[in-house]
Amino acid sequence: MTTLTAPAAAARAATPEIRRRSPLAWARDHLLLVVTVAIFTFMLLPNAVILWMSFNKPSGKFNYVWNTFSTDAWTNPCASPGMCHSIGLSLEIGVVATVVATALGTMIAFAMVRHRFKARSGINALLFLPMAAPEVVMGATLAAMFFNTIGPGGLGFWTITIAHVMFCVSYVVVTVKARLAGMDPTLERAAQDLYATPFQTFTKVTLPLVAPGIAAAALLAFALSVDDYIITVFTAGNLETFPMYIWGSVQRAYPAQIDVIGSMMLLGTMAIIAASTVLGRARAARR
Q1: N or C of the chain: less Cβ packing under 10 Å?
Q2: Dihedral sign computed on CA atoms, order 228, 233, 234, 235
Q3: More confident residue, 91 or 123
Q4: Which of 9-18, 73-82, 111-120 has the lowest mean pLDDT?
Q5: Sign of CA dihedral 215, 217, 218, 224
Q6: Could you give the domains of the chain?
């Protein structure tokens, strides 16, 4: 048996014993981190699968099972007939609906936050109806309204746009109202004390402060418009948007080009978020 010297024994007694912790104990001590990673994995895993399957060369008409790696779908994303036309139609409707809904929703938000009137509480409750009502019921109601006013032959671009503006306005109002509620009103009063006109106060102080909320509302409205299927199918007539094209393709074929378009949208969104983050940090550094 080896005997330890007095200094070695003292050092060993002073050194705390390192215990091997079980994974369950580590997860319990880092519960917030584990839950956060699990939630983001749940949210981002389908997007990763879409990106991965966009490089697949399916053996048949349906891109459901991995076959072999290929970039053919990326080199020719419009190979599937009618797909790029439906994408262009969805983007065109999305841009028009976003501009109109953002303009109307921003004005409504300013009126709801800055002014007091008798019907304010009632209007505030009515704004939540498009978000709370089932889309099937809303789409059927809009179809009935358009049938009775312009007839079935009038369904098309503008009926889809009107329907999208209708449900996008509510989301814009809620988003801009949240931004206005968190804005410091003393900044506008300070501008007025410095002899700024109401127009100068709005353009130089109010609008720059509310602009991030308006931009977020516009992006949300655009995403909702491009993504909508249920209300669109009731008001489209003979037109076919991109969600409608995907639904039709699932029944007869599912080409890899659909995953390519989805990956392009995903990467484009990530690029916009990254650019916004970089510009925000650069602006903060200059200050």
Answers
A1: N
A2: positive
A3: 91
A4: 9-18
A5: positive
A6: 20-71 (no CATH), 82-286 (1.10.3720.10)
